[in-house]
Amino acid sequence: MVASTTALILPTRRDQWSEGLKIRQATTRNTPSVINAVFHPRNFHDGRASHVFTGRTPFGDSDQNLNALRVENGELVPHRVRMEQASLASQSLGPPVNSVEMSYAGRTWPKIGKKLLPLVALATQYVHPADSRLGEFVNPAGLGLRPDVTYALLVQVVFRPEFWESSTVVDANGRPLAGVPEPRNSDEYTQMEYNFALFWGLALHAYQATLVSNDSKFDQYVEGRARLTEEELAGLGEFQSGASRCSVCHHGPETTAASFTRVRALGNDLSKPDRLGFFRVGASPLTDDVAAGGKDDFGLPLFPHASHESAVGAFKTPGLRNIEFTGPYFHTGGAATLRQVLEFYARQSDFPEDGKMDDLIRDIEFGVDDVDVLTAFLKTLTDDRVKYQRAPFDHPALCVPDGHPEVAPGQLQPNPDTPGAPLAADRWVLVPAVGAAGSPVPLQTFEELLRGIGNDGSRANTMTQPCTPPPHVPAARR
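and the corresponding structure tokens:
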């Protein structure tokens, strides 16, 4: 149910201003793709999403709390959640309670559960009748799924009853409240509400684990089902053994050193950034972003067995599959095109003077001709199922905020729905729903978006079709 979150929990605002109006805040890092992220022992650019899922936070074994409630012998008891190889579940628990991304400061997972559980799933979104996962549950009368398909029902159908069946009311710390038949306020919870982070994390992990891209032109070439052009073959040769040294960091079927394949080849050492494919590439000064050298919410280093000096400024190596469609690039979003990425490496980064850049970046050497053939090869890593949004990459519609409209160059339009409040109006655009068969036209790349290529209907998801955000989310019919 990933697609529901934007409509249900909108990003907050803080004191960021432009021309006297408050504007939407933005994160400090570019968002990485979740396609094939199931193969990463750690997720997020800095690796803070641990391969160990503990049910309430992204930080793995740093979180030693008993984060769930379980029914045992008719009583609710605290339960320790610990699941390995589940960095996607860990990752999913960060944004919904992050005040920069999807929430307000101090919001907790039980509060999110209290809000979402009684609601009809995807109630304000159009779901394609041929959706590969949800088609059979589509509401025939309009938006969302059938009126009986609430998030609570989905929990009851999927998860073991000892994690949701109790009628005991608990406080924010999970302690049972005697003589309280049902929650009286927003700080009292049912067992299902209290355990909502557990359900959310496992559901997101299960969904995103299906987003595996493994049928690119290059895959077909390796399997003898396709041929590469001379330019693409030249790019492959340069990628694998040329002075560009691409395969040092981008190797194996996942095309990244930040993968389970590489970790196991090196002896399952999950403790050090470089062994997990985290490197300093010089896309930003070390003083701007400590990356893997940071600390988690428990005050512990993200890589506790590595020195701060070896971790600071190190970022996870991204996979290159479908790289044609994942711009802008780097954790900063500082490169708009594949050519700009390759030119960045050809000049050996933007901030070589930092002094801690990894030697493997300093050793890179290639020229203009190599940029051309490497670009051609990288595009062979595109999977047409992703390019045309075919199953499993189909999805419901989303109405998303996309900046702020101007009434004149440099002058933002005030929000007409909040008279007297210094808020800028939002521009809302539609990401249309698509079914299992996909779209008849390919996705628009970031470079094409900047140039307006494809706005004539020859590309999908051009962020040009306006939409109206839902004023509210209806609860289930009873």
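(Above: one complete record from the training split.) The two ends are 22 Å apart (CA to CA).
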